[in-house]
Amino acid sequence: xxxxxxxxxxxxxxxxxxxxxxxxxxxxxxxxxxxxxxxxxxxxxxxxxxxxxxxxxxxxxxxxxxxxxxxxxxxxxxxxxxxxxxxxxxxxxxxxxxxxxxxxxxxxxxxxxxxxxxxxxxxxxxxxxxxxxxxxxxxxxxxxxxxxxxxxxxxxxxxxxxxxxxxxxxxxxxxxxxxxxxxxxxxxxxxxxxxxxxxxxxxxxxxxxxxxxxxxxxxxxxxxxxxxxxxxxxxxxxxxxxxxxxxxxxxxxxxxxxxxxxxxxxxxxxxxxxxxxxxxxxxxxxxxxxxxxxxxxxxxxxxxxxxxxxxxxxxxxxxxxxxxxxxxxxxxxxxxxxxxxxxxxxxxxxxxxxxxxxxxxxxxxxxxxxxxxxxxxxxxxxxxxxxxxxxxxxxxxxxxxxxxxxxxxxxxxxxxxxxxxxxxxxxxxxxxxxxxxxxxxxxxxxxxxxxxxxxxxxxxxxxxxxxxxxxxxxxxxxxxxxxxxxxxxxxxxxxxxxxxxxxxxxxxxxxxxxxxxxxxxxxxxxxxxxxxxxxxxx
Length: 538
Ligand code: GLC
What we know:
Blueprint: H1 8-11, E1 14-17, H2 33-38, H3 40-46, E2 50-53, H4 81-93, E3 97-102, H5 112-117, E4 131-132, E5 153-156, E6 161-164, H6 179-195, E7 199-202, H7 245-257, E8 265-268, H8 275-280, E9 291-292, H9 296-299, H10 304-317, E10 325-327, H11 347-354, E11 360-364, H12 384-388, H13 431-435, H14 441-454, H15 456-460, E12 462-465, E13 473-480, E14 483-490, E15 496-498, E16 504-509, E17 518-519, E18 523-525, E19 530-535
Parallel strand pairs: 1-2, 1-11, 2-3, 3-7, 7-8, 8-9, 10-11
Antiparallel strand pairs: 4-6, 5-6, 12-13, 13-14, 14-19, 15-18, 16-17, 16-19
Helix pairs in contact: 11-14
């Protein structure tokens, strides 16, 4: 069903910025807010509707900003509140909305709330976090595992109790069942909404509500997608994740957002590998988080069969009227164009898929130029996860943005040492070079964004299954009052033909020479080619 009056987040494209790695304006090797402001003209040129900026709040940086010690300020590493206001105003001047990361599940252990909470068992903020006695044998209160490996409980000598931390022990979990905590966190959101932000990306949204009895999780009998999450994947997260009470919480959160003018939005990090479990997060009335990420495309092997299963799986379970969203990667996942994922030859195909699916697409910075992971030895890693579970580190996908062919690729001034090493191909793979090349991934991305905006069928048209199609290919349709489009993708390095994808006219394709050409009923695709065909008859 097409939304009658589509919202901006249904027609638009979001761009994720990992602020440490985007642009360093002050020469310390770490990206900052002024750096982002300096690159807004580029983002306007690219055509994105909104940016989501990962955390820039004061933080001891145990998890690079996802350990927040003050939710309402800016870490000096990234600038100041004045820099934030300047960024917001400059983005709005260019018609770009600004979404910020809201990290509700945990604070830093250096947050004054936690310092107070851990000061004594009778502290007025004791119950703002999750404190429990040890079991009689001295072991942790239950079997919950940290997403970053090991028990999710840390013993506190001073007060003789354990506290819960779903991530690092430097990231104690807040207790959202305490109304004071909830009020304080809603106030945090209001502070930023009053400042003018257009919404939030909600970090690990389902984690905030857990079983009030803190029951043990059962073991995970299968080695499904969860197994990629290391030790955490060995359990079924029935009790430490997505307790149904989260629905009421996010309904309230949405109501609060909607007291502000201008279609403020919430985008939740709400993935679950099981499509049905994931769909249940939408709840009956869907009056909760507006847009929900799913990571099915980032977790799938890049084969036609797996991609079809991911897309059709999501489409098949979406409740009536619900809105999907899509990503190829983010700051926690290997980069899409890396050889171990889809490979650079498929970068255009992936981008064409992302920007023609039904649902809000989010582009991770650098994807638009086909950036790949930059390998980092465990000994040199910055991400604490790599040191705890080697192989799971996220530094490779966080390397500095490749702006041009100068030393430091335009990310930082020459001579500065960037916080993570630059890709060795930065002199050839960069924004400046690709902006001038009409056949680059970047110019294709820009054209796709423009087409998605112009063509109502692409932004709000229905999704229709198509096929089966020959091995190695995937196709689907977008259908609306304004026409019918067939998106045909060749995920292999060999030629393929897709019967009945035409006849029609190629609106856009990964290869520019196809634009505007007529195709017959059988659409022939070259290796690594994808096209959007507009049917002659609707
Ligand atoms: C989310 C973030 C990730 C972070 C974790 C803990 O999954 O995307 O980067 O480490 O939450 O806050």
